[in-house]
From TrEMBL:
<dbReference type="Pfam" id="PF18933">
    <property type="entry name" value="PsbP_2"/>
</dbReference>
<keyword id="KW-1133">Transmembrane helix</keyword>
<keyword id="KW-0812">Transmembrane</keyword>
<keyword id="KW-0472">Membrane</keyword>
<feature type="transmembrane region" description="Helical">
    <location>
        <begin position="9"/>
        <end position="28"/>
    </location>
</feature>
<protein>
    <recommendedName>
        <fullName>PsbP C-terminal domain-containing protein</fullName>
    </recommendedName>
</protein>
């Protein structure tokens, strides 16, 4: 009888220990993305930056998912249409009660790359060619290289490039800091570029290498 009682007692104890272990893992999971009043903030051991609330970094905004992920070398950020929290997903709203609609990404992508070296033949002055789609972009009807400028990101010299075609604009920024090369590649529809430029600048101007 004593052994049977002990056996029955061990079951809830094991369940409690398992639940506690899961909760501990969740609490200790790296929190890469935090939320401010008007922006989100990304932070890892190497870089940090701000970005709009309706932009989403896949996989790295959910603490449960980050338990199983290593710190990324590359990040992909997509903008998502917003929906009212008080309405269905088919009813779009841009007021203060809006939230990202994960099911409806729009045509905006930002890719952040970390590299220990550049590809042979590539320098910061032509780093836009590191875009894996550039050979195709260059052959697209209406393609034009619009501009190249020298700017400053996180206190160091950076190169920004603007190129595209009739439908898409590509805005890339590359710089070197602490022995690594960093690229911020922004892509959006040509008609949307002027309205999105302030959001690209939010990320770029807040970008910090530790």
């Amino acid at each position: 009888m004593i052994k049977l009682k002990i056996k029955h007692l061990m079951i809830p104890i094991l369940i409690a220990v398992t639940v506690l272990s899961i909760l501990t893992y969740v609490v200790l999971a790296p929190e890469y993305v935090t939320y401010g009043e008007n922006v989100k903030h990304y932070n890892d051991s190497e870089i940090s930056f701000d970005f709009p609330q309706n932009w989403v970094i896949s996989d790295y905004e959910n603490p449960v998912e980050t338990l199983f992920l290593s710190e990324p070398d590359n990040l992909t950020i997509n903008r998502h249409d917003t929906i009212s929290q008080n309405t269905s997903s088919s009813s779009m709203n841009q007021n203060n009660n809006s939230a990202p609609d994960i099911a409806n990404p729009t045509m905006l992508t930002v890719t952040i790359s970390k590299r220990s070296s550049l590809t042979a033949g590539i320098t910061l002055e032509n780093a836009y060619k590191l875009n894996e789609n550039y050979p195709l972009i260059e052959k697209t009807p209406g393609y034009q290289f619009i501009s190249q400028n020298v700017t400053t990101v996180d206190g160091v010299t950076a190169y920004e490039f603007l190129y595209g075609d009739e439908t898409h604009i590509y805005y890339d920024v590359w710089f070197e800091k602490n022995g690594k090369f960093y690229g911020i590649a922004c892509q959006t529809l040509t008609d949307s570029f002027n309205s999105e430029k302030k959001n690209f600048n939010l990320l770029i101007n807040s970008f910090h290498v530790k």
